[in-house]
């Protein structure tokens, strides 16, 4: 009996085992059918597929949810784990625990639990909600009688995103992976181009599958991308490069750029008031010079000239002309109000300004015809008046005003050769603008010059000539400052002795062997020269005489510099606030500098105060320096330089130069900065533009020219904290406070809203040298500086501490104005390596900013940079 029972039990268990085996085999076969041919069946632990079973039970009394599958062929293949979306006919009561477990694994744990909670609260079981909402694109048109849409889908917004995606789901939290729910703000995340779900490196391939349309969640495949991400199409990320082979990355990026689902739709582009048709879009994209980075929007297009812009805005590009696209160009296309018309369009103020600077006569009610080669004529006159882009100076002005110039040769005649692939050739040679600003004497010119030595072309002969003249003129400025100081010190000394200066002067004998009334007294001959020099300086006429008379007076300068009275005066240089420390360097070489053959050395160039203005070699190859008309030195020194510093000039300060021209003193006048050049800091070339600041920036019109700057680099001299800016009697101002106000003015300027700022705290060497003897609290902004004694004990660490303190002061100020982080660097601009470091840092900042704007990943606080790591307490703390 017992044996029979045991046999029966054994038979029963064999049957059960066989059944189980059969069931498993059936599962396996089903899985095999769903997987790509040859793919191994993953074991239970590794199983990462969402699957469904076909319901074969009795008819259910309620409507069955109907979801159409994503075409699995798209999702399979390559190295990534494919994720199969399902056709689910499963009634709630028949869902197996396995399917639930699988769907649970398929969803991000966090998202799933959230949804499960929601379902449970509604009394429903959790079934694969991701599948239901995510494949809704595939569902038949609503109301189709054959396949009633029994699943309630979320509301879909205009861009095809459902409510969950529009309202921030939990996985969208900064740094939180949308799939596994793990968060780390410092870790890189790959974002879906459609719904912006972010995935960590562990989940990205599982969530995005083989990426047949690039970086999209599997459930977003087939859906149009989020337009704000269009510019990142085809640009790979570090994470992807780590996870996939180079070939795979290339294929994914190619698919991302070229797959139909990611292309612009013609109706997304409205040109001259009319949405495009497919053939028009094809014509635009296929023309020799198409608009770059075309985004959906409303544009205007002037088919005669090729000018292209956003509706209501100035021209942005020049594309191929004569394309038959869009409606008719409207008069108000660019919202101009100048009563000057080009090809029927009323031009904007900026265009008019450029035309005027290019000396094109354009009184009101002028109607021009502009052709695509740049030639123009007045309407009805049949007489070509010139070529608008023919002059290099006009092209420079256009670039400064962010107006387009045609690609092609320097005559402005575009070369549309059919064999010339313009798609891969950038339209312009102009890179992103980096605007370098700084108050007087902060060292911005030195940084610019160092950058030019590092990354730019050599100084042209004309630039060198101008630097030479600048050095010669500066030499007389330094001498004048010394003579002014000498007079003051002499007066003070003689007052102490109770004798008058006139008496003292009368004692002085011409041979210089007189008994001097005091150590600051000079002989009559020198006194005579001194009075003359101080007078022309007071009249503001120094530039009218020097450098022209440099050679003539060189021996006098040398004599002065060696005179005991001037040596004594120089000993008190700390009291002569406008005397820079380079004065002695140049006065030591007064005779050499004044010679006709003098050629400034690299050191002279760097030490020279100021920078060459916008004169350049006509033979230079840079688009910025080619053909800019060379002006005579005298003109350059007055008319060209003044506008940069013009903010502090009032109308009454306008003065005439030797040629009888009046220097522009309007704050609206664009400054002619030194020729910018490109910094090949990365694949993207940056164009460094230097502009020197004088006076308040409120209403400063020329700053508007740089509103498209990629970043503002603001330079402040650390050593200014105990310096005084003399602006006439009773107007002495601490230089650091003046720098702070100027910085605040630039930050507040409407043109730079949203523009990243990098502050370069320069002259760290001079700062380090003086901080031990001159307390930082001399500057009222730094009154609360109280160095920790251990750190303040040695000069160097005190300087480091003070640097950090000042940087934080600026950071706090910047944050209070913008709620943004200020990036701070440290330089000793005379040392080239520190400038190189600073620009590397700036490049990193721009990369971080790009990443931040693309919201790819969070950032650590990398907002400090010091060229001398050991001297930065912040870096040590980090
Ligand atoms: N010791 C020291 N001197 C510097 C440093 N950077 C610049 N200088 C000197 O400071 C003086 C002024 O520098 P510039 O570069 O002409 O200053 P700027 O900001 O262009 O001033 P403006 O041309 O007057 O607008 C020059 O003599 C430079 O050699 C620095 O890091 N350390
Ligand atoms: Mg300068």
Automatic annotation (TrEMBL):
<dbReference type="GO" id="GO:0007188">
    <property type="term" value="P:adenylate cyclase-modulating G protein-coupled receptor signaling pathway"/>
</dbReference>
<feature type="binding site">
    <location>
        <position position="445"/>
    </location>
    <ligand>
        <name>Mg(2+)</name>
    </ligand>
</feature>
<dbReference type="InterPro" id="IPR001019">
    <property type="entry name" value="Gprotein_alpha_su"/>
</dbReference>
<dbReference type="InterPro" id="IPR027417">
    <property type="entry name" value="P-loop_NTPase"/>
</dbReference>
<dbReference type="InterPro" id="IPR011025">
    <property type="entry name" value="GproteinA_insert"/>
</dbReference>
<feature type="compositionally biased region" description="Low complexity">
    <location>
        <begin position="611"/>
        <end position="626"/>
    </location>
</feature>
<feature type="region of interest" description="Disordered">
    <location>
        <begin position="110"/>
        <end position="149"/>
    </location>
</feature>
<feature type="binding site">
    <location>
        <position position="829"/>
    </location>
    <ligand>
        <name>GTP</name>
    </ligand>
</feature>
<keyword id="KW-0479">Metal-binding</keyword>
<dbReference type="GO" id="GO:0005634">
    <property type="term" value="C:nucleus"/>
</dbReference>
<feature type="binding site">
    <location>
        <begin position="762"/>
        <end position="765"/>
    </location>
    <ligand>
        <name>GTP</name>
    </ligand>
</feature>
<dbReference type="GO" id="GO:0001664">
    <property type="term" value="F:G protein-coupled receptor binding"/>
</dbReference>
<feature type="binding site">
    <location>
        <position position="625"/>
    </location>
    <ligand>
        <name>Mg(2+)</name>
    </ligand>
</feature>
<keyword id="KW-0460">Magnesium</keyword>
<protein>
    <submittedName>
        <fullName>Uncharacterized protein</fullName>
    </submittedName>
</protein>
<keyword id="KW-0807">Transducer</keyword>
<keyword id="KW-0547">Nucleotide-binding</keyword>
<dbReference type="Pfam" id="PF00503">
    <property type="entry name" value="G-alpha"/>
</dbReference>
<feature type="binding site">
    <location>
        <begin position="606"/>
        <end position="625"/>
    </location>
    <ligand>
        <name>GTP</name>
    </ligand>
</feature>
<keyword id="KW-0106">Calcium</keyword>
<dbReference type="GO" id="GO:0003924">
    <property type="term" value="F:GTPase activity"/>
</dbReference>
<keyword id="KW-0539">Nucleus</keyword>
<comment type="similarity">
    <text>Belongs to the G-alpha family. XLG subfamily.</text>
</comment>
<dbReference type="GO" id="GO:0005737">
    <property type="term" value="C:cytoplasm"/>
</dbReference>
<dbReference type="GO" id="GO:0008270">
    <property type="term" value="F:zinc ion binding"/>
</dbReference>
<keyword id="KW-0862">Zinc</keyword>
<keyword id="KW-0342">GTP-binding</keyword>
<dbReference type="GO" id="GO:0005834">
    <property type="term" value="C:heterotrimeric G-protein complex"/>
</dbReference>
<feature type="region of interest" description="Disordered">
    <location>
        <begin position="610"/>
        <end position="638"/>
    </location>
</feature>
<dbReference type="GO" id="GO:0031683">
    <property type="term" value="F:G-protein beta/gamma-subunit complex binding"/>
</dbReference>
<feature type="compositionally biased region" description="Low complexity">
    <location>
        <begin position="139"/>
        <end position="149"/>
    </location>
</feature>
<keyword id="KW-0863">Zinc-finger</keyword>
<dbReference type="GO" id="GO:0005525">
    <property type="term" value="F:GTP binding"/>
</dbReference>
């Amino acid at each position: 009996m017992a044996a029979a029972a045991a046999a029966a039990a054994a038979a029963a268990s064999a049957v059960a085992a066989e059944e189980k085996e059969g069931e498993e085999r059936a599962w396996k076969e089903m899985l095999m059918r769903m997987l790509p041919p040859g793919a191994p069946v993953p074991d239970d632990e590794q199983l990462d597929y969402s699957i469904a079973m076909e319901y074969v039970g009795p008819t259910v009394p309620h409507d069955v949810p109907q979801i159409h599958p994503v075409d699995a062929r798209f999702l399979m293949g390559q190295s990534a784990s494919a994720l199969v979306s399902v056709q689910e006919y499963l009634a709630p009561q028949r869902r197996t625990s396995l399917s639930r477990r699988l769907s649970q694994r398929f969803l991000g744990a966090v998202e799933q639990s959230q949804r499960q909670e929601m379902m449970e609260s509604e009394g429903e079981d959790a079934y694969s909600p991701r599948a239901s909402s995510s494949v809704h694109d595939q569902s038949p048109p609503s109301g189709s009688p054959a396949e009633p849409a029994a699943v309630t889908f979320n509301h879909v917004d205009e861009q095809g995103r459902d409510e969950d995606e529009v309202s921030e789901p939990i996985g969208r939290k900064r740094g939180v992976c949308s799939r596994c729910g793990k968060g780390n703000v410092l870790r890189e995340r790959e974002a879906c181009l459609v719904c912006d779900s972010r995935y960590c490196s562990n989940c990205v391939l599982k969530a995005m599958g083989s990426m047949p349309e690039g970086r999209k969640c599997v459930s977003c495949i087939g859906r149009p991308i989020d337009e704000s991400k269009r510019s990142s199409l085809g640009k790979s990320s570090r994470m992807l490069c780590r996870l996939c082979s180079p070939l795979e990355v290339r294929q994914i990026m190619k698919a991302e750029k070229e797959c139909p689902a990611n292309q612009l739709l013609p109706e997304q582009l409205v040109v001259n008031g009319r949405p495009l048709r497919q053939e028009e879009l094809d014509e635009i994209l296929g023309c020799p010079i198409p608009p770059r980075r075309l985004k959906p929007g409303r544009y205007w297009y002037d088919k005669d000239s090729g000018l292209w812009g956003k509706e209501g805005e100035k021209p942005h590009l020049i594309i191929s002309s004569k394309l038959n696209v869009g409606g008719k160009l409207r008069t108000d296309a660019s919202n101009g109000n100048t009563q000057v018309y080009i090809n029927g369009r009323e031009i904007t103020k900026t265009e008019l300004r450029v035309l005027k600077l290019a000396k094109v006569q354009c009184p009101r009610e002028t109607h021009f015809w502009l052709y695509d080669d740049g030639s123009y004529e007045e309407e009805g006159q049949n007489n070509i008046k010139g070529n608008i882009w023919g002059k290099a100076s006009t092209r420079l002005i256009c670039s400064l005003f962010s107006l387009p110039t045609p690609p092609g040769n320097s005559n402005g005649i575009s070369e549309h050769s059919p064999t010339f692939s313009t798609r891969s050739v950038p339209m312009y040679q102009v890179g992103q603008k980096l605007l370098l600003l700084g108050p007087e004497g902060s060292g911005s010119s030195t940084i610019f010059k160092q950058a030019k030595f590092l990354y730019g072309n050599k100084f042209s002969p004309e630039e060198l000539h101008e630097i030479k003249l600048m050095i010669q003129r500066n030499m007389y400025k330094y001498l004048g400052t010394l003579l002014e100081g000498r007079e003051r010190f002499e007066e003070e000394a003689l007052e102490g002795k109770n004798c008058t200066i006139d008496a003292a002067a009368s004692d002085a004998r011409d041979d210089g062997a007189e008994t001097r009334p005091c150590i600051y007294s000079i002989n009559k001959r020198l006194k005579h020269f001194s009075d003359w020099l101080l007078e022309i300086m007071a009249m503001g006429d120094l530039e009218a005489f020097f450098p022209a008379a440099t050679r003539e007076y060189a021996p006098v300068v040398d004599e002065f510099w060696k005179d005991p009275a001037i040596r004594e005066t120089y000993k008190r240089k700390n009291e002569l606030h406008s005397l820079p420390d380079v004065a002695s360097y140049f006065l030591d070489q007064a005779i050499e500098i004044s010679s006709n053959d003098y050629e400034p050395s690299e050191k002279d160039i760097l030490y020279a105060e100021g920078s060459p203005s916008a004169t350049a070699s006509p033979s230079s190859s840079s688009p910025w320096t080619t053909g800019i008309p060379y002006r005579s030195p005298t003109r350059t020194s007055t008319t060209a330089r003044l506008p940069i510093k013009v903010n502090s000039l009032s109308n009454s300060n306008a003065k005439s130069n030797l040629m009888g021209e009046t220097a522009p003193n309007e704050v609206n006048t664009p400054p002619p900065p030194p020729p910018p050049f490109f910094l090949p800091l990365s694949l993207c070339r940056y164009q460094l533009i230097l502009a020197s600041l004088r006076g308040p920036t409120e209403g400063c019109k020329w700053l508007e020219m740089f509103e498209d700057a990629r970043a503002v680099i603001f330079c402040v001299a650390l050593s200014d904290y105990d310096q005084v800016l003399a602006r006439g009697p009773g107007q002495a101002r601490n230089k650091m406070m003046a720098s702070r106000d100027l910085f605040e003015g630039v930050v507040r300027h409407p043109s730079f809203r949203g523009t990243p700022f990098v502050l370069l705290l320069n002259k760290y060497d001079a700062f380090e040298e003086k901080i031990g003897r001159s307390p930082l609290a001399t500057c009222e902004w730094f009154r609360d500086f109280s160095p920790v004694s251990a750190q303040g004990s040695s000069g160097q660490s005190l300087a480091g501490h003070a640097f950090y303190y000042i940087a934080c002061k600026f950071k706090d100020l910047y944050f209070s104005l913008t709620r943004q982080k200020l990036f701070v660097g440290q330089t000793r601009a005379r040392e080239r390596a520190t400038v190189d470091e600073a620009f590397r840092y700036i490049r990193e900042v721009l990369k971080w900013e790009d990443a931040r704007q693309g919201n790819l990943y969070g950032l650590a606080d990398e907002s400090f940079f010091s060229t001398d790591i050991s001297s930065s307490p912040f870096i040590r703390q980090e």
